[in-house]
User: Fold these one by one.
Assistant:
Number 1:
Amino acid sequence: MDWRPSGLRDRKIIFHIVAVAVIGLAILFSGQSVAGYLSFLPSKIFYLPGELFDRGMKILTDAAHNNAQLNAELVSLTTRLQLSDDAREENRRLRVLLGFEPPVNYRLLPAEISFIFGSGIPNTVRINRGEVDSVRVNQTVVTRNGVAGRIGQVFSDYSIVYLLTEPRCRVAARLKRSREMGIIRYNLKRGMYLDNLPSQGDVLVGDTVIASGLGGYFSEGLILGTVASAEIPEKEFFYNIKIAPAVNFNGLDELYILVRTGESD
Amino acid sequence: MRIVQNLLQLIPYSVYLFVIAFFRPHEHQLFSIAGVEIFVAPLIVILLALNKPVFVSLWFGVIAGLVFDSYDPSHMGVHILLLAGLGLATSIFRAQFNLESIKNRVIFISIGLLFYSIPYLLIYKTSGITEFLTGFLTVSLPGVIYSGIIGGLFFMMQSGRFSYQKIRAMF
């Protein structure tokens, strides 16, 4: 009985096994030069698809890397562009403001808004100027369009501004054309209105309303708004005048405090 | 005409060699799970040796070893002997086992891969008994299991138990 497995019973296969073993050992101990020659052809033929795959993957990886880099750059540039747009807009506003002349004996102190308070419409804002900047209670706060309010409270490095939409902020006003006088008030139900103007007064829709200077807080001539509607209710002695404020309280950006020249800086 | 026929018969073997060469530089990147790799070359040699005569298995092992070692000629000859031996052993011993069931075939190829991985580990990866045991437990054994699973999937696809239609039917 033959002890060998069936695969080894053929003498030819023994010959092949011996041949392979001899070849294998010869290559193993032949040294680097023979190994180099032997590996040349297989590495050029069989490794070619792998190399192409590697190249393709490298191109894709580089493209993905570039893409990520360009995306980051795009975000950065977009942000810079937005900031630049904002600066351009600020520049434009400042250019407009150059035409705004503060009343005689006053100078403008720019202030930035740090907080806005109020439900529905802002009625109080906090600004970054305080006692150290010569800010005092009741100083007038304006925008390039007109009066925004007055300083309500002053702290060392910030202040609270009562806007015209704050019920505590009332302004003695007059119509620029007819010189009729009244008081600008605001409440949520009626909005801004000119109170205390007798029914005999001369009022037209579109009339400009300015500060009369009689209240003591606001200098005369500062623009408050325009007459949006004027009617005399039945059996009443006073006009019911709605005012369209000169300042857009929902779009406040820069405020300026009117500081009397001569007040300590 | 006969030459053309013989050349056509070589196409599948060339494809196997291309697959071996493709996976050789990328074995650390492609299909590696937590550092565990598939032993592609020995797996292909074993799968081929299960169905081919001893002579073909032996010489395919030689050529596969040559292609495998061409990537790193400093060890040229090691895989020629290893894969030729693996092809030969698989081809000879397959008749001694009942390889009808997929489970038996998976066990058979796993044993073959284990026999391949031990000298591979001794030559390439270790310099002491501790390193050998560490390498065996962290490289060889997980690699054998992973490759065995891939071999099992191949057998399941071969027998039609695992097919695209069946996967589609699951969803």
Number 2:
Amino acid sequence: MSGPVDPHAPVVFDRVTIRYADRPRPALRAASFALQEGELVVVTGRTGSGKSTLLGAVNGTVPHFTGGHLSGRVSVFGRDTRNHRPRDLAGVVGVVRQDPLAGFVTDTVEEELAYTLEQLALDPAAMRRRVEEVLDLLGIADLRDAPLRDLSGGQQQRVAIGSVLTASPRLLVLDEPTSALDPTGAEEVLATLSRLVHDLGLTVLLSEHRLERIVGAADRVIEVHDDGTVSDGRPSDVMATSALAPPVVHLGRWAGWDPLPLTVRDARRAATGLRADLSRNLGAPGGAQVAGVETHPLGPERLIASAVSVTHGTVAAVRSVDLSLRDGELAVLMGRNGSGKSSLLWALHGSGTRSDGAVTVVTATGARVDPAAEAPRTRRGHVGLVPQSAPDLLYLDSVHAECQQSDHESGAAPGATRATLDRLAPGIPDDHHPRDLSEGQQLALVLAIQLSASPGALLLDEPTRGLDYPGKAALATVLRDLAAGGTALAVATHDVEFAATAADRVVVLAEGKVVADGPATDILCDSPAFAPQVAKVLAPARVLRLDQVLGAATRLGAP
Amino acid sequence: MRTAGSPLARHLHPVAWWVWAIGLAVACSRTSNPLLLLLAVTVACLVVAAKRGSSPWARAFRLYLVLGAVIIVLRVLLHVVVGYKLGSTRLYTLPSVELPGITLLGPLYLEGLLAAAVEGLRLASLIACIGAANALANPKRLLRALPSALHEIGTAVVISVTVAPQLAESVQRVRRARVLRGEGGTGLRSVGRVALPVLQDTLDRSLSLASAMDSRGYGRRTEQSPATRRVTAALTLTGLLGAGIGMYGLLDSTAPAAIGLPMLVLGLALSAIGLRVGGRSVQRSVYRPDPWALPEWLVAASGLLAAVLVVVQSARAPGTLVLPVDPLAAPALPLLPVLGILVAALPAFVAPDPPVARRGEP
């Protein structure tokens, strides 16, 4: 930190070290920084690095609620969290967490908005006025009587923000507010936040894995390193060196652009030369493909769905979809929440509802069977599924026990699951409790368990949730290797950048129907909604990823 | 039943519904005259049909009626199996089983059966009254009306009500996950495997909810001296004990009059003072509290009037409030109690209609 720190700044961390009793190393180590009024500050860091600890320490949840030992000093508008409990700071700091539904106390929108005010003992007339103001401010007035459970994810998160805003806090702290939302919901929430910063001058501190959404709007980035130390700086300075950076930053670093672009718009303005190089050196028209899709020969059809429909009650989730997966193919299913991606995966797997149509899977022996007609144990050998909340599959108390149980369940040789796990995520100790693993490690364990039955087809539902950039890159490599080994894969995801790294083929669903199906490059480059950042920067060149640009550039001797 | 000049649609104060229902229940408890009991159940049904909302607990009223019917049947069966048989009109003779001190089965008399059925009907009518209160007053709104000293208990109840559907959801999710690992998902062995992840899920959820509530100001209160806390506890406990005894005295017609109404009033007063003292340290306010206006007074008074008129009748002519079984005769139809119970139907006409629920977007 440079210069004297205003003691009444929204947040001051002064040499803060936080340790938990059962952890060998501190979650935060000598963290010092201060937030200014009206700043939008993004906290980044690897999964499990102490981001949540940092955010929790701001209003005293750490250590008052979670336990642990805090040395140093945290103050919020001059109030020391040592002698102010979270409840005492409720009128000053508003806290919003990842899963809005888990934090709701009442059951309708209006009552939820009033809850904090009731606790603060505001008089009813003022309470009524503030609730009405916040309803208008967030554009949720038409939802006032709605049950919270019936709202979409984005609406729920906006209600959660509103429920702390009614108390007129001057600081908002949000712990991954968008990670449980689809892109539209995330957009709604981030737009709301940026409006609050600009119109009301609120100070906002938030953490976010998918920096591509937010880093362009941030005033400052605080990075929590793996050893618990913290560095902060202007976004372009932090992004210049951080391992956690969106694709557009990686492109900018590689191309040596200065200043480093953080948004697609800035990058596109800087990329005029690169775009010209790419198309000129190719000697091809502007729309030509720069890098060929690395194709490996596809095998025969493994999983065939014809006219599959799924209805839940009166809602038709999937309407007469035809789809087939070939061996060695990695298909990504995309589409907004409720477009039927999950329902389709569960129907393909055979354990979910299927109202109409037929699904056929080719077994290892070449027989064609309907997976829904198989017993769960035999079905696993034909087609595997990793559900959205992967840890549900884990119920034993150590990694070792899970691996053993998995070998037993799938009749694999002892140690087979462990060997797969070591290939996917090396170095997970045998005696760790599965619940204590990071999201990426849990996913690897579940994947290893499902692979132990050596299914010919594997389906994954939103596997990237909660993974940071290196975690997603590792997952993409694992899935590419599986595909290269001949497994047929289908992955449902919202994550455009992940799709760009992993997919051979993209299937876009809307309202239960397939609206686009084709090679990843064609579908992703042509779509304004699903185009990855690199494609947006370099259009009309048809590239999805930095390594494709790299490949083209070395081939052509540019830049 | 919206008539011209009736108030705008709104929720009636839940306490008013409960006072009304308890009044009607007291009336039922003081009589075993089947005509009066049936009249009271009809009145409860009428009011529920006219004024209930569209919420799940409002739809549960039928369950209370079914429960009442089951109670009547059980009471009669119990009489047939172990009851002490009395009467002169023998209907049927079952083989009797002599056990030391008790005779099972045996002869059945019309008088005994009728008396048992009326006993069952009395219980069933009490259940119907409580069910009516539940159907008419949103339990969550009732908790909001609690005195602030009880606010924390109220919050705990609201949360447990909210958590139940979430629990069902996570059980379903984990069972689906078990199937993915190749298990049938049924059978005793899978219970443990489902329970552990569900339990962990629930614990995580509770912790995150608790932390969210903490950071939203829940539990802010000023410190109280130990002396005040002790006084609060003593007042509340003595008061509740007194109220309990008073309630017993009121419901049991053989108890001395002194431990009836006076004891109840004294007990309630003591509890009220205790809650008031305890509530002083809790600083919170209520958003859009339900108003207590004319309809509330009318609803509460109609229930109380029913109770008072039946109690008055039981002092003046107790014989008219029972079914005469020795010798068996048609029950009387005393004017005063009939009037009282009919007055209890007033809420069907004077209470405001509940607002029609608007749905959010799916």
